[in-house]
User: Fold this.
Amino acid sequence: MSGSGRLRRAHFQEGGGSYAAHRPTYPGEIAKYLASLCFRREQAVDVGCGTGQFSGLLPEYFRAVRATDVSASQIASARPCDRVEYVVEPAERIGLADGSVDLVVAAQAAHWFDLDAFYKEIQRVTRTGSVLALVSYGVPSLPGEVGEVFVEQYNGPLHGFWPQGREHVEQGYAGLDFPFVELEIPPMAIERDWDLGGFLGYFSTWSAVKKAREAGREDLVEGMRRALSQAWGDPAEVQRVTFPINGRVAVL
Ligand SMILES: C[S@@+](CC[C@H](N)C(=O)[O-])C[C@H]1O[C@@H](n2cnc3c(N)ncnc32)[C@H](O)[C@@H]1O
Assistant:
């Protein structure tokens, strides 16, 4: 593993509990769409699964689901789910036999991987008619004034603390190396109705927040919290938060 790979993975070595509590899950339609593309539906793998945000959608369509993450903290906090086996394991080394996997999905995670090694591993574990999906959700949008303040703050000084790779999320994975014949993902979005606490909980899971704190810049984190809180008004008020779903999908 390269030095930068180790550093990038370190963002998730702690905080699985907070991730489980505050990160959004995905709409069922994305799993349904991916399953519809698979020739067989015996084995799915969710790599970089975090605490299982995507994994829990897969047992409805696949006989067996392996959900893996390089972070033991994420796996320890993963939500238990029938027919999902959680394993601490890098995406670049999947502990399954050659030609045994029908769907590999990486949700909001592929921009952290060593893509050359990962794609080699994909070629090994999949078979003809299998599907590879790199799913990502972009920067959220919120309505009205709070939405404007969020955009301003997102692009403010805290932005400099996002680790390398964030640009891929912002570009909807369009610039990610993907040497396969691709299919379009139909338009989909994650929608959450969050009060201020819900949104700030999600904000607290950002790697930029963690990095700013480590650099002694709690003031920047606090500044964004304050600006959002002021724009929000009544903390109990619920705002619709929309994350566009993007990604790259191929039938292999
Ligand atoms: C932003 S989180 C996404 C988690 C979850 N899939 C989701 O959609 O919310 C990225 C995850 O990728 C994991 N990760 C990063 N590099 C990895 C690698 N090389 N192999 C496996 N997991 C990795 C991190 O530990 C983290 O849990």
